């Protein structure tokens, strides 16, 4: 690949914000965006962990953020925005409460919606207020937002991620006149602490592999690579799209 081609994926001089950045997919995204030249702000409910991970990256900082707290979101993004425009936002913070629909409590339902859907919207809106033309937002959706799942009950998570998929489309259309692109990635089961509970069941993991044409889980850096593409100038004509990173799961 030529230097000119590689430059399309560079983020030199750009400011990126990643939520849920202390571990898993969020951390992999922060690391790759940093390698691509961005100044990265790592935000996470565990602020100390975000600070530790930021210390290992070039030109990065870490701080606490609960994406279920609307007032905190505005404070943190306003503080970042005062330092200069935000060029990239990756909405990776998320949670799951895996319970059957007949057993999930209203409180559990609302907590998942607050973090995965409302939190994603509020972070996107807060970031957009500090963005200029050419900026990019990448939401972490899920294959569960594009399918009915079926391997185990996860109704609140599936609903929230389905909302993220359509919110991505809606914001892409609304903010196109501002030249802010909004896309998402839809990962399959990814080898991170997020699925630690599931990995305790070898039979379930075998079923997951069996319904995945590539017969394996995704790695966090494979998801991050898709995020980098959508965030970079290489995807300058792409907006409103959810890119599955799923080993062929949705192709069946």
Characterise the protein shown here.
- The protein contains 9 helices and 7 strands, in the order H-E-H-E-H-E-H-E-H-E-H-E-H-H-H-E.
- The protein is α/β, with parallel strands linked by helices and 252 residues long.
- A 7-stranded parallel sheet has the order 3-2-1-4-5-6-7, with helices on both faces.
- Strand 1 (15-19), helix 2 (24-35) and strand 2 (39-44) form a beta-alpha-beta unit.
Topology:
Elements: H1 3-7, E1 15-19, H2 24-35, E2 39-44, H3 47-55, E3 60-64, H4 70-81, E4 88-91, H5 106-128, E5 136-140, H6 155-175, E6 181-187, H7 196-199, H8 202-210, H9 220-231, E7 242-245
Parallel strand pairs: 1-2, 1-4, 2-3, 4-5, 5-6, 6-7
Helix pairs in contact: 2-9, 4-5, 5-6
Structure at a glance:
It contains nine helices and seven strands; from the N terminus they run αβαβαβαβαβαβαααβ. It is globular. It has helices at 3-7, 24-35, 47-55, 70-81, 106-128, 155-175, 196-199, 202-210, 220-231; strands spanning 15-19, 39-44, 60-64, 88-91, 136-140, 181-187, 242-245.
Structural class: alpha/beta
Tell me the total number of β-strands: 7
N-end to C-end Cα span: 32 Å
The helicity comes to 40-55%
* Rg over alpha carbons: 17 Å
Strand order of the largest sheet: 3-2-1-4-5-6-7
The overall pLDDT, averaged over residues, is: 97
The portion of residues forming beta strands comes to 5-15%
Largest sheet: 7 strands, parallel
Low-confidence stretches: none
Overall geometry comes to globular
Instruction: Please tally the helical runs, counting DSSP H or I stretches of 4 or more residues.
Output: 9
Write down the secondary-structure element order.
Answer: HEHEHEHEHEHEHHHE
């Amino acid at each position: 690949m030529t230097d000119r081609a590689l430059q399309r994926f560079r983020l030199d001089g750009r400011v990126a914000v990643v939520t849920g950045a202390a571990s898993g997919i969020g951390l992999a995204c922060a690391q790759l965006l940093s390698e691509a030249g961005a100044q990265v702000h790592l935000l996470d409910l565990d602020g100390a962990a975000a600070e530790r991970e930021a210390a290992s990256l070039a030109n990065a900082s870490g701080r606490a953020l609960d994406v279920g707290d609307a007032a905190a979101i505005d404070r943190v993004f306003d503080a970042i925005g005062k330092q200069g425009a935000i060029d990239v936002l990756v909405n990776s913070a998320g949670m799951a409460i895996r319970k059957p629909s007949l057993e999930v409590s209203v409180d559990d339902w609302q907590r998942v919606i607050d973090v995965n859907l409302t939190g994603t919207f509020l972070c996107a809106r807060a970031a957009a207020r500090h963005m200029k033309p050419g900026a990019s937002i990448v939401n972490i959706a899920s294959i569960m937002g594009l399918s009915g799942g079926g391997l185990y009950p996860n109704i609140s998570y599936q609903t929230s991620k389905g909302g993220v998929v359509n919110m991505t489309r809606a914001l892409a259309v609304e903010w196109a006149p501002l030249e802010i692109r909004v896309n998402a990635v839809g990962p399959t089961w990814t080898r991170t602490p997020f699925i630690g509970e599931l990995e305790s069941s070898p039979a379930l993991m075998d079923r997951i592999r069996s319904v995945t044409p590539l017969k394996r889980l995704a790695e966090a850096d494979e998801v991050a690579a898709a995020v980098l593409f959508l965030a970079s100038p290489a995807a300058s004509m792409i907006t409103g799209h959810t890119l599955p990173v799923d080993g062929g799961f949705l192709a069946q």
